[in-house]
Structure formats: structure tokens, C-alpha cells
Amino acid sequence: MYQLYYSPGSASLVVHWLLLELKVPFSLQLVDFSSSAQKSAEFLQKNPLGQVPVLFDGTMYRTESVALLLYLTEQHPSAGLAPMPGSPQRAAFLQWLCFLSNQLAPTFRLWFYPPDLGFEQYPPALQQQLADKITAIWQQLELHLQQHGPWLCGEQFSAADLLLTMYMRWSRNMPTTALAWPALKRLADACRARPSWQQLNQAEGLTEWQLS
Ligand SMILES: N[C@@H](CCC(=O)N[C@@H](CS)C(=O)NCC(=O)O)C(=O)O
Q1: Would you write out the chain's pLDDT as a tens digit for each of its 212 residues?
Q2: Which of 53, 88, 174, 180 is the right S-S partner for 15, CB 3.0 to 4.6 Å?
Q3: Closest ligand 1 atom to the C-alpha of 10?
Q4: What is the model's pTM?
Q5: Which residues 6+ apart lie within 8 Å of 211 measured at CB?
Q6: Are 205 and 10 in contact, with CB atoms under 8 Å apart?
């Protein structure tokens, strides 16, 4: 049975969501950020970076959300949540997972963690630059979805769409939320219509997000 170390709404969300979609047994271990539990000696043994998600798979503690998406979808291929190696859509699946984790995730990390760059609070110009960079990425994704959607991998829904929806949720308190882009909103609405989304929100105590 899997054990997921998580913090509500954080990068562990997509792994939690995927486990629900896969309908495999798992348990949740809350990592309490308010008491810096992610930096405790015990947790650092599981992930020396002091970050969630961490997944115990019965053998090892494994980290990195995108690696976990690849790992879990390959472990449970019958769920059909990823084009498998050798299938025509596999390259697109890998491309979009890497795009999201290389472009969007590091920019969001900087947005949410000014101390990573030595700031308590960003100077307004730097904050604006980060917001602009995220906006440019939404724009690029919107164009892709309009031309090749409705999902990131075209006609095939996949775990990459869950990952994108998690990142979109992170923009909910930004000056422009990702829901302002119509094809992105359609994708997020379709993902949020899945029963697993309600289960996830309930389990993590999250509130829904809207176009403000
Ligand atoms: N590349 C990692 C990033 C994980 C990450 O940044 N997690 C954040 C939550 S979104 C975290 O654990 N932050 C706690 C901290 O840095 O103290 C992944 O995708 O798994």
C-alpha cells in the first residue's frame, strides 16, 4: 500500500489526485508546514530537500511529483492515465510533463518562495516579472490547447492534465488566474468535473476556485 506525505494544495496534490484516479489503496501522512515538519530530521531522511510530495511505495521513499506521475501511471497502466511507451502520444505526454515541470513549476516556486532568492518580499518589479512569465506560459498553453486540444495530449486525457490543473489552481490569487484563458478553463472544468476532484478537495480541506 502506498503512503503519501502531503501538504494540502501543494505539489503533492497531483500525486494524491492520481492515486484517487488510479483507485489504488493508499494512506495520507500530513506534513505540517506550520510547524516546519518538512525540515525535521525525520522528514529530511525521506527527502533531503525537505519538500513534499514523498511517496513510500512499500520499498523506498520516492520524490519529485512528475517522476511520481510517470512511475505510478506505468505501475498501473490499465487505468489508462498515460499513453504508454511505444504509443503514438507518448512523446507528447513526456513533452508536456517536462514543459510544465521545467517552465511553470520553477517560476511558481519562485513566486511562492521569495526566500529562495534571499528576499523576505519581492520588490514590485521582480514580482511583476514573475507574474508576466507565468502569464506568457498560460498564453503558450492556451494556443496549444486551441490548436491541438482539448487535452494536452490531444484527444487523450492523461495525468498531464491533472498536473496542469494543479498549477492552474496555484494561480487563483494572482492578478490574472489561468481560468481567464478559455481553452485552459475548459480543460480545468473538465478535470474538476471528475468525482476524484471532490474527493481530493474534501480530503485536503480545499476550497474551489473561480474566475474572479
Ligand atoms: N520539484 C518538486 C518541488 C516540490 C516543492 O517545491 N514542494 C513544496 C510545496 S509546493 C514544498 O514542499 N515546500 C516546503 C518547503 O520548501 O519548505 C516536486 O515537483 O515534487
Answers
A1: 999 999 999 999 999 999 999 999 999 999 999 999 999 999 999 999 999 999 999 999 999 999 999 999 999 999 999 999 999 999 999 999 999 999 999 999 999 999 999 999 999 999 999 999 999 999 999 999 999 999 999 999 999 999 999 999 999 999 899 999 999 999 999 999 999 999 999 999 999 888 75
A2: 53
A3: 10
A4: 0.97
A5: 177, 179, 180, 185
A6: no
